[in-house]
Design brief:
about 180 residues
């Protein structure tokens, strides 16, 4: 008879959670504890920071040079919405605060886009070359169609001391001859 040796199986130990990992369960638990007290804890603040940093590394936001500003405004949005999460409607606090961060990121991107269009419009007004994205924008839409943006451009022109009037065809022809 051949006897088989019994091999003992060691119990599998759970790995400790990584410091850069945020679970919905821990996040929800900490959030509920802080909402009962009415004060945000340092641990919850660190969770907001971790969530904003991780979300900024998403492919849609990772290529921007102003990622620090995105993260900062994402954290600010989470702090402002700290007490707005309703545990009676949902237990997914992770999704709620991720959307807060996402919307804050989109606000920053829209603001930066508007500033770039204004800067490019000023460059065009001074007969300089705008960015390539502005040229593509001109092909698809009117350059600056919103009255608020037109006012901002006019204020910047006045601040810089540039002529705020439109050039006539004769003046434009004279400028072209000077080049």
């Amino acid at each position: 008879m051949i006897y088989k040796k019994k091999v003992g199986i060691a119990p599998i130990e759970k790995a400790a959670p990584k410091p850069d990992y945020l679970s919905n369960k821990a996040f929800y638990k900490e959030l509920m504890a802080c909402q009962k007290k009415g004060v945000m804890s340092n641990a919850l603040g660190k969770m907001f920071i971790l969530l904003a940093n991780k979300y900024s590394s998403h492919w849609r936001f990772s290529q921007y040079t102003y990622r620090d500003e995105l993260v900062g405004n994402g954290i600010k949005a989470c702090c402002e919405a700290f007490m707005k999460f309703n545990c009676k409607k949902s237990h997914n606090a992770f999704a709620f605060y991720t959307m807060c961060i996402h919307n804050a990121f989109l606000q920053i991107l829209n603001r930066e886009k508007r500033h770039q269009r204004i800067r490019d419009q000023l460059l065009v007004d001074f007969n300089m070359d705008p960015s390539n994205s502005y040229l593509e924008f001109l092909e698809t839409e009117d350059a600056i169609s919103e009255p608020a943006e037109k006012e901002e451009v006019q204020k910047l022109i006045e601040k810089l001391g540039a002529p705020s009037h439109e050039f006539t065809d004769e003046e434009a022809g004279e400028l072209d001859k000077d080049k």
